[in-house]
């Protein structure tokens, strides 16, 4: 079956009997164990074209791996063809146009390194080793969302291999429908081999917010943070994370196993003007540690990398909220009190500024009127019961759903769930469906928050 493809790709086609197969089918989430029929380790756009054409002819469904960080592990599939872009990580900067041209397997850190050489940035996420492709296609929330919007808002062009095996260039005047759809519609429409992202002047030094409070103050921290958000300038984007600190060597021993609330963020204007603006976020309660201050942008973007372990089984969920009213906070905190394991990362990211001013129909990413998004993950460490953790996450979602905003979730932070997909695409769903039917009527690209063309 694979001989024609093998003649084109040589050892870039990896079959189950190949030594590299088990390593290549691994993704970030250790709970995922899927066995594709073959993996194509692409090194060029032509490799992607060959792989898609082959899948089309052989009636094989396709999964696409950018950085492999998706919680639902949709980069890898059972019995289909996995198109692996992780060797395509090039980033070029067009300084004059202020555009970064980024290959589909790049990590966020690859972009920061290349763009910061010129004092430029594009909004991405907060952990530098995350893949940009899945993040950008599903939204992209980072510390610049208030000032410059989501990652998907800053896609100004893309090279896409469609389900027809055609390599096309989409931008505002070419394949406008597809250009609209990839700004939040996920991997439904083809393989993006290259993105073009808008760049802005920032750095190298920026003012970072990095305060840690005692968990006992969590309720008043959330209430005060919400008050702060009401008048927060676009320059500020911040996240609130409740967790029990691990006994990790990079943390002082006094903090091991301590339950804390961390507030992290960025003031994206002139650091001199930001000190007084960020001050209220440093006084939400009595800090245990406050490392807020001026640091290189690249350092900020890498700060959380040490907290992230790869290949641990993770169960997670997400919901948007309009307000963190007392009842919502109580339901969440009660649930956290009764978590079956201590390895829960519960994040509330404040949403404001530019990302929320973009009209809902302007991009496929529809939820533009929430104030917070919950991103909750449970890491299942050795000895912990995976099924118990999964059930607890499902029950937390069910308990909080009635208090959520539009029953919607950040799709990059939730396992596959048809109702969440539809609720989140909201009024944009029908338009996405018609674009899916046009570009991928046989649902070749189905391993994603799927817009089923049937
Ligand atoms: C440690 C960690 C930190 C994170 N931090 C953030 C954050 O700060 N902000 C945020 O918004 N999100 C964050 N996320 C979530 C992140 O957005 C998703 O995990 C996202 O899927 C990562 O992209 P990826 O390329 O690694 O995904 P992959 O797992 O490789 O792919 C996921 C899906 O995206 C699609 N896809 C991937 N590549 C392509 C491509 N080239 N062309 C077409 N479709 C493609 C496919 O449908 C694929 O199934 C984080 C996740 C992790 C694990």
From TrEMBL:
Its cofactor is FAD. InterPro entries: BBE (IPR012951), FAD-bd_PCMH (IPR016166), FAD-bd_PCMH-like_sf (IPR036318), FAD-bd_PCMH_sub1 (IPR016167), FAD-bd_PCMH_sub2 (IPR016169), FAD-linked_Oxidoreductase (IPR050416), Oxid_FAD_bind_N (IPR006094), Oxy_OxRdtase_FAD_BS (IPR006093). It comes from the Bacteria. It holds the Pfam family FAD_binding_4. One of its GO terms (molecular function) is FAD binding. Residues 32-202 form the FAD-binding PCMH-type domain. Keywords: FAD, Flavoprotein, Oxidoreductase. Belongs to the oxygen-dependent FAD-linked oxidoreductase family. This is FAD/FMN-containing dehydrogenase. The lineage of its organism: Bacteria, Bacillati, Bacillota, Bacilli, Bacillales.
């Amino acid at each position: 079956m694979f001989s024609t493809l093998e003649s084109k790709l040589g050892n870039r086609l990896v079959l189950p009997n190949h030594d590299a197969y088990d390593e290549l089918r691994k993704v970030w989430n250790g709970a995922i164990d899927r066995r594709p029929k073959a993996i194509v380790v692409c090194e060029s756009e032509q490799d992607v074209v060959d792989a898609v054409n082959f899948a089309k002819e052989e009636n094989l469904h396709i999964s696409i791996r950018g950085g492999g960080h998706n919680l639902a592990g949709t980069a890898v599939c059972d019995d289909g063809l996995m198109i692996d872009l992780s060797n395509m990580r090039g980033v070029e900067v067009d300084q004059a146009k202020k555009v970064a041209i980024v290959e589909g397997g790049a990590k966020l850190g690859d972009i920061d390194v290349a763009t910061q050489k010129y004092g430029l940035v594009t909004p991405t996420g907060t952990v530098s080793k995350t893949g940009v492709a899945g993040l950008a296609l599903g939204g992209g929330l980072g510390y610049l969302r208030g000032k410059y919007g989501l990652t998907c808002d800053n896609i100004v062009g893309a090279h896409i291999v469609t389900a027809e095996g055609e390599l096309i260039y989409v931008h505002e005047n070419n394949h406008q429908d597809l250009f609209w759809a990839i700004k939040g519609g996920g991997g439904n429409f083809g393989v993006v081999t290259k993105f073009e992202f808008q760049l802005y002047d920032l750095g190298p030094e920026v003012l970072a917010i990095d305060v840690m409070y005692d968990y006992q103050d969590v309720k008043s921290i959330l209430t005060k943070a919400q008050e702060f958000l009401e008048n927060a300038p676009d320059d500020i984007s911040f996240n609130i994370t409740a967790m029990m600190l691990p006994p990790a060597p990079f943390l002082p021993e006094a903090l091991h196993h301590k339950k804390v609330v961390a507030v992290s963020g960025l003031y994206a204007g002139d650091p001199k003007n930001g000190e007084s603006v960020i001050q209220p976020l440093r006084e939400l309660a009595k800090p245990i540690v406050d490392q807020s201050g001026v640091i290189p942008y690249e350092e900020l973007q890498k700060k959380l990398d040490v907290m992230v372990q790869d290949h641990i089984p993770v169960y997670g969920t997400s919901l948007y909220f309009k307000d963190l009213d007392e009842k919502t906070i109580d339901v969440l905190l009660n649930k956290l009190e009764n978590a079956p394991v201590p390895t829960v990362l519960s994040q509330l990211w404040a949403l404001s500024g530019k990302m929320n001013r973009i009209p809902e129909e302007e991009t496929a990413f529809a939820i533009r009127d929430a104030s917070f998004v919950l991103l909750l993950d449970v890491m299942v460490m050795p000895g912990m019961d995976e099924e118990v953790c999964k059930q607890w996450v499902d029950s937390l979602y069910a308990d909080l759903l009635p208090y959520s905003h539009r029953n919607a979730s950040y799709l990059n932070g939730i396992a596959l769930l048809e109702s969440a997909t539809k609720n989140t695409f909201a009024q944009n769903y029908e338009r996405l469906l018609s674009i899916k039917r046009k570009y991928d009527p046989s649902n070749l690209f189905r391993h994603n928050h799927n817009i089923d063309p049937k």
